[in-house]
Specification:
The chain has one domain: Beta-clip-like (Beta Complex), CATH 2.170.270.10. A two-stranded antiparallel ribbon has the order 1-2. A two-stranded parallel sheet has the order 3-6. The protein has a two-stranded antiparallel sheet with strand order 4-5. The chain is built from three helices and eight strands, in the order αββββββααββ. With 117 residues, it is an alpha+beta fold. The N and C termini lie far apart (47 Å). It is globular.
Amino acid sequence: MHNSLEVNESRVKDKAHPAANACLQEVSCANHSCDPNAEVRLEIGTTQLRLVARRAIASGEEVTISYIDENDTVGVKERRDALQDYGFVCGCEKCAREEGSAVKKTAGGHKRKKGSQ
């Protein structure tokens, strides 16, 4: 039970309560993205939480939140390390894009990581 609460809780994006966590049935179903289109916010002066869009969300697009705070300050390896306790390796578009930029095509069409021979 304790582990389920840790994995399914959401960090609340609120300057007045920077360390607040909550476990909400609807929000705990949201998948992670390192470039999320939504976030959980505490309504000022209340105990109510809202799922708020961070940008326009297209019809049919999955609503995603971030499980970690480090999305804009670290690279793909560090973000994946921070997500280890959630039991998955992030393969969101941002991680795939950053991982792909570290891969270089060789003359034979094979891919290799930059700096490898």
